[in-house]
Amino acid sequence: MKIQRYKRDGSYSYALGAALTYELLEHAPQSAVKVYVSSATERTPAIVDLLSKCRSLGVPTETNDKAFHILSPKGNCFLICEFRKQEQHIRPGPHVVLVNPSDAGNLGTILRTAAGFGLTDIAVVRPAVDLYDPRTIRASMGAAFHVTVEYFDRIEGYIERFPDNELYAFMLGSSVPIHSVEIASPYSLVFGNEATGLPDEYAQFCRSVVIPHSKEIDSLNLPIAASIAMYEFTKSVWGGGA
Fold first, then answer.
1. Is 153 helix (H, G, I), strand (E, B) or coil?
2. Strands laid side by side in the 187-191 sheet
3. What is the value of pTM for the model shown?
4. What local confidence, expressed as pLDDT, does residue 173 receive?
5. What are the DSSP E strand ranges found in the chain?
6. Among candidates 154, 151, 159, which has minimal Cα distance to 206?
7. What structural domains and CATH numbers belong to the chain?
8. Does the pLDDT value for residue 110 go beyond 80?
9. Contact predicate 166/188, CB 8 Å
């Protein structure tokens, strides 16, 4: 197959680097197509083990410097795993819902945090940044292979699928601080776009919640707000509750 730069409408994407390649082989080996190896790759014990894992999984490897010139020209990447995109469907239970996220780095960071707090089902409402963009995969530090992400064209489509979920919308105009919220389960933590937040009408069908902060800033950025919310809603699971 011809090596070409990532395309959103294509069937394949790339995990750039040994750490991401390992995470993919460990958690989503069925999607792996091929591992490209740079001729400059040092055969450390970790790399030898990773290539052995490829053999045991039946994933072909190929030394191909051209792949790195096309896919990762910066020169600090020595392994690339090409993988098939998978259609994903989230399960009933608690969810993180991202409405129109626009930044690959932010999405990847949120996926990593969600995996860390055990919130492994993520709904994304279009228009939105691409889960399979290599920049998203890299920002997630491989957590993209630990979670399930499903895209929805409209928030109504998500609500129709999961009518039992209590929706908590994080909005600056809310009068209910996060530490005072009574948590109903299953729940959905709903966040808006980085620049515009959630439309006002979300307060009509969600419980609106605010994360209090000083007047020194206008708002918290999206990954930080999502991290605080995920911690607050799961702290009893991890021993942080009263």
1. coil
2. 148-152, 121-125, 95-99, 187-191, 166-170, 207-209
3. 0.94
4. 79
5. 12-16, 32-37, 61-63, 79-84, 95-99, 121-125, 148-152, 166-170, 187-191, 207-209
6. 159
7. 12-84 (3.30.1330.30), 95-234 (3.40.1280.10)
8. yes
9. yes
